[in-house]
Task: inverse folding
């Protein structure tokens, strides 16, 4: 299976219009019909061909291979789209394994959860990963993966505000070709002290650990984007209206909705010696502590000038590069930065990014709305993906569907959170008891200190009632660090509070309050007077306020 190095692309006509009118008899429906002509199907070759408009208003010939497989996969709010003059298949989630079920029934997943059966949970989450990392087409000669075609919040907001739901028309509607929309993680804006951390992220790393910068994006799959756009969920006025009408939560996302937060590092194309150095994850610290990348004291080296089979370990202590700690671009899901992306990223990130630089994927939060509290899995690049460090494990790694993962996609470790604590508690009326279930991403949450959190607790015992006061106590039973978090608990707290003035300090993180790992009921008093956001912090983080401001 080939390694996909994605390009920066923007849908010239995408999203989520579902089954639109046919442009020609016996040709597949899809949004591509709106900006493509001379559409034809070659049944023998199993291809769809057309002449499609690009962002610069020029046209080009394009062909989508494996048409039958595409048609079989876009039955639930999927699309065949025109991405900058290229036909691309956009299902809710590709299913390379025909036996894989997505969305899985809530009853089945809950049976796994409440029986403590981890094996099918691992298999299911790896099935999701294999789907979103599958190739779905070729854009200007470069293969692209499914998740790289999904829209960002800014693109969905444009659809809402322009009234062009389900439609991108490139420069004709002032949309710029900027699909690689990276920014500083909102989490790092949580406390005043984070300003110092932000400054550290934006300057060239001087430590021997190498580059400690990280940048993130957010994207929704077609069904999730369609739901957010049609319900105008990124507008503060919409959220206010729900509260006015007596609602306590937003309309639930559909069961096949997926949202992701990819994490990237940017490699300059002219880096000295062609060797890029960044911190290698050494595992969860014991005892727990604040653990930012600059404290990992371990290195990974990426040779950007050659290809080959990489090593299998990190350089503990950053003593010097060896074959065991040297890897290649083909060991990472990555993309080469285009001229348009470079201009945007230089302005957005505050550092010089050039055409031809590389963005390598080092992590990704992935969540699906298959159950009420969503299914949570997080992925991070691992030097030894066969035996990764905690919060992953060898048992999780052994469940990888290697038949459906290329070299790059197989290089990532996984942690999952189908529940908040173990044994699993009911969604309402449960207790914060048992033991902690930890699931975090080393590149995102490991750096969090107790000042980031508004809710901390132990699982059971004296401090089982979550509170801000607990975050200030040093009792070792209290989960108070980023390496003691659980994706489900944290996102459970996603809410819109009408008492907060979201127009103040637009650069501050709106995604609060944050919590560590503990159990919370769906009816917890913390939500009184607020609007629950169906676990989607990204709605608040990108919300267009009533004054028109965004973060």
Result:
């Amino acid at each position: 299976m080939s390694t996909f190095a994605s390009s920066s692309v923007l849908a010239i006509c995408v999203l989520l219009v579902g089954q639109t009118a046919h442009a020609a008899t016996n040709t597949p429906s899809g949004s591509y019909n709106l900006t493509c002509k001379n559409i034809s199907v070659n049944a023998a070759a199993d291809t769809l061909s057309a002449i499609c408009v690009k962002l610069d208003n020029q046209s080009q010939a394009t062909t989508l291979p494996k048409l039958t497989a595409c048609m079989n996969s876009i039955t639930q709010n999927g699309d065949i789209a025109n991405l900058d003059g290229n036909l691309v298949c956009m299902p809710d989630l590709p299913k390379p394994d025909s036996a894989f079920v997505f969305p899985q029934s809530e009853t089945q997943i809950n049976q796994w959860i409440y029986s403590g059966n981890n094996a099918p949970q691992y298999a299911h989450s790896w099935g999701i990963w294999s789907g979103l990392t599958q190739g779905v087409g070729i854009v200007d000669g470069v293969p692209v993966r499914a998740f790289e075609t999904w829209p960002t919040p800014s693109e969905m907001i444009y659809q809402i505000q322009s009234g062009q739901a389900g439609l991108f028309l490139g420069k004709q509607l002032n949309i710029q070709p900027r699909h690689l929309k990276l920014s500083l993680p909102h989490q790092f804006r949580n406390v005043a002290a984070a300003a110092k951390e932000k400054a550290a992220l934006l300057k060239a790393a001087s430590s021997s650990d190498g580059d400690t910068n990280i940048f993130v994006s957010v994207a929704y799959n077609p069904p999730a984007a369609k739901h957010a756009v049609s319900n105008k969920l990124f507008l503060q006025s919409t959220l206010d209206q729900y509260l006015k009408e007596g609602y306590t939560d937003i309309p639930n996302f559909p069961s096949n909705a997926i949202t992701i937060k990819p994490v990237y590092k940017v490699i300059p194309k002219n880096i000295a010696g062609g060797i890029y150095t960044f911190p290698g994850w050494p595992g969860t610290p014991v005892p727990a502590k604040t653990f930012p990348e600059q404290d990992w004291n371990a290195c990974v080296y990426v040779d950007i000038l050659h290809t080959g089979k990489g090593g299998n370990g990190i350089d503990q202590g950053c003593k010097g590069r060896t074959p065991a700690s040297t890897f290649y671009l083909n060991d990472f899901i990555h993309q080469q930065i285009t001229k348009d992306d470079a201009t945007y990223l230089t302005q957005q990130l505050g550092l010089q990014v050039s055409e031809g630089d590389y963005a390598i994927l080092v992590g990704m939060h992935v969540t699906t709305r298959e159950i009420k509290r969503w299914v949570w899995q997080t992925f991070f690049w691992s030097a030894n993906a066969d035996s990764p460090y905690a919060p992953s494990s060898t048992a999780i790694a052994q469940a990888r569907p290697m038949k459906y993962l290329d070299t790059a996609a197989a290089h990532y470790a996984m942690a999952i959170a189908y529940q908040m604590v173990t044994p699993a508690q009911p969604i309402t009326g449960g207790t914060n008891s048992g033991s902690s279930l930890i699931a975090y991403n080393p590149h995102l949450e490991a750096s969090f200190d107790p000042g980031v959190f508004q809710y901390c607790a132990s699982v059971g015992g004296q401090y089982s009632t979550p509170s801000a006061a607990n975050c200030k106590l040093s009792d070792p039973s209290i989960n108070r660090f980023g390496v003691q978090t659980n994706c489900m608990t944290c996102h459970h707290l996603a809410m819109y509070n009408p008492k907060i003035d979201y127009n103040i300090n637009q650069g501050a993180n709106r995604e609060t309050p944050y919590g560590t790992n503990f159990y919370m009921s769906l009816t917890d008093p913390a939500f009184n007077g607020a609007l629950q956001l169906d676990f989607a912090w990204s709605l608040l983080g990108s919300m267009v306020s009533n004054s028109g401001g965004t973060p």
The first strand starts at residue 5 and ends at 6. Residues 118-132 form the longest helix (15 residues). DSSP finds eleven helices and 24 strands in the chain.
